[in-house]
Structures are given as C-alpha cells and as structure tokens.
C-alpha cells in the first residue's frame, strides 16, 4: 500500500495541519516514512467500519523512540494522534475523527523473542496474529484468541481492543495473555508495565488497563505475552435444529454437563440460506446450526464428541454429524467463514455492514436474543443475519443496508438501538470483542453509565491535552451514522475529505 | 472473633478519631457492627505481615449501600479507610498505617448466584475461597487459582491482590477470572465494571485495573467471576535432584517439551531438612525436590506422567516416584504445605517471617535465583528456606529472624534488598501473588520506576483526598521494618498502639 505515497511528491494537502508540524515529523522519521499526499490520506481515512475521515498526515515509526518523539510533538502542538495496526477495526477505531496524525505501526513487525522454556514471547505491535501463531506452532505452542481477522490483524490492535474470537470460552481473550507492555504515554514518556513472568501483583496492573483502551491512553510499542500448548487433537460436531430455542438450550446443556468445548459456532436460518445460496455448500436447511469444537488429548476428544452428540440429540437436534477428519472440519469451518461474504452478496442492492455486530449475552440468553433480533429486523424492514461464538454468548449480526438510501440507514440505526436495548436488558454487553470507538459509543455509554466518570477521570489524568485518539468511546457525541464511508449522507457531511482537522480544545 | 467487641461497652479509644465520625458510623451500621474498643482495635491492627498499627474504628458493613455511606463519611471527613477480608495478607495490606477505619468485609459472605449454564458466579467479597470451590465443585466446576491460604482467604482479598498459587502456569491468576465488579469509589459512588458475559470490549477494563489495586482505588462489594471445568484426574511425580541447577533445568525441559503441568512445586535443601526434622515425613534427603502435578483426562494424565518421569531422569533426577493415588498425593501435598510451619519451628529463638517472600522470575532463571538467595543468606548470616511454584517462576523464601534482635532484623533487611536486586536483574518481579503494600513497597518502586507517575496520576484522579488505604504501595516512604509487630524496635516506634491517626493531608 505504501507505493501510494509517491515519495518525493509535493506536500499538497497542508491546509489543515501546520507546515511546522509536518516539517518536524519529517525530521523524526524522514520523508520516506511519512506522507501528506491526498491519495495516501484518503486511504488512511478508512478501516473496516462504516466511517471515513481523512487524516492530516500519516507516519510510519520504526521504534519506540520515534513514537515517543512524535507523541511529544503532538502533545506540544495539541495535534490528535491515532495509532493504527492493520485497519481491521469494525467500529472506526483508526478513523481520525478530529484529523491529525495516523501512526501506522505496521513497520514495527518483529517477533523479538520466543522464550520457549519461559512460556512468553516479546513482539512488536505490528506483528500479524497468524504469523505469530505460525512461529509459536513450530514449537508446539499457540496464542488461541482466534480473531476472525487473524490473517491480517496485528497484535497491537488486538491488545488495543481486547480482541478475541470463537475460542474465548476455553481460552479467554487477549487480555488474558498480555503479561506486559511497553507504552508511549500521551506525554511521550516510555513506560514498561507488567512483567516477563507468568504472574505479578506488583502495583497497578496498568497493562490490563491499556488492553481495550483503543489507543486513547497511549501507543503500544511492545507486547510481552504468554501462550499455551497447542492441543494434540480436535474434533467437530455439526448439529441441525428446527428451532433456535433448542439450539440455544443445547449450548447451555453442553456447558452445564459440565463439558468445556473449545468453540460452539451458531448460525441462524438467514445465514444458512445465504451460505447455501452463494457458496453452494449444502448445509442442512434448518432454523439453526451449531458447530461444536472440542480439543485436547485425542482420546478425550473422542469421548467428548460422543457426549456432545448425545446432548445435541437430547436437546432436539434433528441431525448430527461428527468428525475428526481435518478435511471435513475445514469444509465446515469454510462454511462458517463464508457467512460474511455470503451476506454481502445477498442481493445486488445491499451491502452488509458492521452495525450492532458484536454483542455478547449470558450464554443461556442466546435464543431469546436471536429471536428478538429477528423480530426487530422484521419491524424495521431490514435484513439481519445472526451468527456467532455462542459458547461465550458472543453474537454477530450483519445488517444488509442499501448504501445510497438514507431511509435504509435510518431504519438500520433504529434497529440497532432496539437490538442493544434487548442485549442490555438480558444482562449483556454491546461489544464482546470488537470494541467501541464510534459505532458502539452511544450504546456503551448506556451500558457503562455509572462508570463513565471513572473512565473520563483516568483519561484526563493520563492524557490531559486529549491528543490520543480523541472524540471516541465516552467522548463520542453524535450519531453512529456520522461520516459514513457510503454515499447516502454525503451532502450532509460537515467536513470534506481531507477537511480541516478540529483541534482538541479550540487551539492548535 | 467478633465477641471481642463487648457490645454495649463504652467507646474508650476515641482520642484520635472525632466523636462525630464515630457517631455517624454508628448511625450507618448500628452499635453491634462497629467498635472502638481497645482490644478490638488492637486485634484489627494485624494481618499476616510483620507490621502492626492500630486503627481508630472497625466497622462491619452488610451491603454496598452501607459501604457507600461509610465511604462518603470518610471522604467528607478525610478519614483513612482500609478494606479487610480475612487478614491473610503478607505485606501489611490491611494494616492502617494512617489510622482511620477498618472496613471488615467478612459479613458480606454470600454466594449470590452460580449460573452453571452461563459459566459465571456472583459472590460477595467476604466469600472464602475454599467455600466457593466447595459449591462450584458440586456442579463439576472450580476456580483454580489455589492460593496457599485458600481455607481462610476471601475472594475480595484475592481480587485486591491478584492472588494466585501453584496452578497459575496452567490456570492463570485471579485477574484472569474476574468478569466484573461492583465497586464503591472513594467518592462513595457505586459503579459496576465488566460484565456477566465471558468477554467484553466495552470501554476501559476498570475491573482489571481494580484487580491488584490493594484497596487504594475503592471498595469491592461484589465480584462476578468465571470458572472452569474441574479436571477428571490428576497425578503427581516427585523427583529428587542433587543439584538445584538440574531441578531448575528440569522445570524448563518439561515446559519446552511442550507439556503444560498444572503445577510444579520446588523445595530447596533447607526446606527439605526442616520438613523432615519437624514432621518426620521422610522426603528424599537431597539438594532439591520437584513435585510435578498434571491434570486432565485420566488417559492423558497417565501418558503425561510417563513423559514427565522421562524428562526428570534425563534432567538428572536421582530418584523419581509417580502416583495417581489420592492418599499418596495427599502425603506429598502435606509435606509441601508443611514447609511454612516447619521453618517456623526451625529453632526456638527464630520466627519465620514474610520478608522477600514472593518474587517471581522467568522460569529458566530459577536455579540462578535460588543459588543467589543462598549465597546472600550466607553473607548476612541469616537462614533462608526457598520453595515455590516453580512452574510459573514464583519463589517463596522464608527468612528466620530472631524477633528480639535488632541486628537480626537489620541483617534480614539487607538480605532482602540484595535478593530483590538479583530478582530484578534476572527480569523478575518483586511479587508474583502477594502484593506490595508496605513490605515490598521500596522494591516495587524500583521495579516500576518508569510507571509510578502513571499509577499516582490514576490514584489521584479516582481518590483525590487519598482516603483509600493511604500511605501504601507507591505512597510508602520508609523502611520495610516500620511498625513491626515484633518487640525488637518497640521503643523506636513513632506511634503507640492506638496512637493518634495521621490525617491524610494534615487536616481532619
């Protein structure tokens, strides 16, 4: 992507940011690792969310020291600064709503150390999840958080959002693997939190506070992580149900047995139909499908698969199939991964967008939640497919929206609000693994009403000038449809692409 | 213990705390659940540490609402307030160095909910670890943190110190099980952090910040926790080594295999001799002993025990014995648990004290650390026994001190400083599971030198009047031998028992 920078070109987009700031940035990283070219800035205004805002400059630091100098400059000049990994964020985390500097961390992509006998590794934030696991795998280990975007997403981004995936029920989320961090604070100071030991009780657990803080408290420049031993075997059982309620009850029955699966993936009928239509995979045509993965010692896996199949049948499954054959499991996994692209091809006029895409409810509330989502969709005339990591109560919906139609977006927005009301009413959370940023901000503020004050106090204590990823999370004011990357509201946008950045507090 | 309160007695220790504060406390909880009697206050000046300072009042709240009212009163009157669970803290966490109110949380001891199918439970902070596990065990689950004081310690205290134990290598520490908290902030506001779902990315992970904050950021009034499925079987291998280096290398070799034991306990020759002498257990007379526990499916356990024994022999073990028999395992476990009382009975003139008792180093550095500890002990003429959870690099030393001898304490203090220098030099931490408070404060400040500013900023943001457990951790100034519970420095003590409390900022 970097060729977009046209090195040597003129700085043709300098309306918003003072030339002196740009000149100083150039001094820190050199011309080759920064840009203010229109095309570059436009590209860096996107992530995987529905939003788009153009930054004023993009910088690619190569060391903590450089990050520190950039942050000091930003602090001195009150310039917003937004760290960015692979840009796979679903809620606008790397969209610079106040303009300023995008800090592209992907050049810091080295695995610095894998200390096999100490069960920890040290990586730079730009290391890609799958690449780390490929290295760990050579030694029989893995970091099992399993985010859906594992092929692309970076460890730094995973830490910033507390990312996880379908295996959280057994293996936890990113927060459970971080042992220590090197962080550049908003002042530019470089601090080291946590340890290289498997546990510590030595002062405030600042590393755990940084996890999930979405770039608002500092820039992560190094991550020390534990990992675990890769299971020797795994197996999958696919069970078809004629009612969502039965499928949900099945998930609860497995856990209450007690039996700890490594994952249970759920698909509703909208998803099943979409996958069968677009991918010709031939999933059972039913109301709900559960894919139950167990892993561990081969003999334990065999035994648990028999138990799982039994529970599925007792819970009302109309058909079951189980396998330890890698090829068969890969087919099922492909079908599950095909949901997103299939929903995107549902109809020519629709795009599938990340709206209300990541709520989590207590496991036993899943059927109630999914049925409610379907009813809300009907009421507002929108199409919603629901799937997710049901073993940990994490549901993803994809909403199909007509991108040129204001009405379609508004209907979606209304549905989203009602969906989150249901989720919060069931004791759930508005985001299980994607984070808040813009798209979930109004609902997070509802969920966390009584602790927003504490969050703001911490933010103010560590970032008094509000330069780090400003205007997000608790600081977000406005609609979730703000600065859409789609054309529906183009004429209403208050800032043109590459428009003037808003200084944090009225002064720059 | 509560009978000590002599209900109905006069308030005879009211020199330090204003009568109006006491009268208001009485209004909140009633006379029966508070005391300012000398005997009560004296007792509540202790925990399991070497320190003793008498509080001005003890209160036993029964609800978050009462805690909130007490904290509001403390905030208004700038009265120090120290939450306390079972008082098993090793470093003075519940010793009120600035006087004020002890908040005894043990009346809040209900398990409010165990939601089997949702894999979470909700407990009050005074619930005892073993009692929670007894309840979870009935359903096939457990919270495997395994603190040494599990029979007595409370969940609230475990959260406050990020407690853990010998099984952290496989199962993590308390921080990895907390899903959400109800916390009374230093302002008296009641907030709810985290969720009842297995994962969330919804705003700052304040629950994880509260874990390990040692009562300095608020009072925990409810804990929502995940747990896991109890393993079906476990087995133990005991291996004797003629060199500490071989024993340490064995631990690393097991992990690098890769094989994830549920625990590896290490004992050095001082501990082995003490246990054999005092308990007549007949452990192999050697330089170092490893007790390696594996758990899981019975067949996997059998296989792994064979592998473990093989690795032990390859690593230089002079004898090994393995068993899945509960009786035999219990004998070994008893021997391990006998270390502390055995060291305490080492010689009549000694007491075994918690000084440098809980450092953690990267696993492969254990032999180097233990040999260095032995050399430091020799140099200063003190006796140190080292044992610990070697699978996660966590070492406990017990130092034998002559309680009436200033010289003995001073020698111990010097040894402690040198031990921590070694630990930090090896990339370790001064506390793996006990916390900081007083006894580890100077060394934590060395370890965390570059992040103390951030910790202080957070503390100030959430507790601007510094009423919550003041004067601890980063705020501790002075020697680790301050306010000893032992008579050596009695005449030097700057405050008599039940002496005047120091207001937090010169005003009360």
Q: Any descriptors?
A:
homodimer; 508 residues; alpha+beta; eight-stranded antiparallel beta sheet; five-stranded antiparallel beta sheet; 16 helices; disordered N terminus
How many β strands of chain A by DSSP? 19
**How would you sum up the major sheet of chain A?**
8 strands, antiparallel
Helix content of chain A: 25-40%
The pair of chains with the biggest contact is: A-B, 94 and 94 residues
Q: What best-fitting shape of chain A do the alpha-carbon axes yield?
A: globular
The total of helices of chain A stands at 16
Q: How much beta of chain A, percentage-wise?
A: 15-25%
Give the assembly state of these chains. Answer: homodimer
Radius of gyration of chain A, in angstroms, nearest whole number: 23 Å
Low-confidence stretches of chain A: 1-15, 493-508
Structural class of chain A: alpha+beta
Q: What's the rounded overall pLDDT mean of chain A?
A: 91
Distance between the termini of chain A: 30 Å
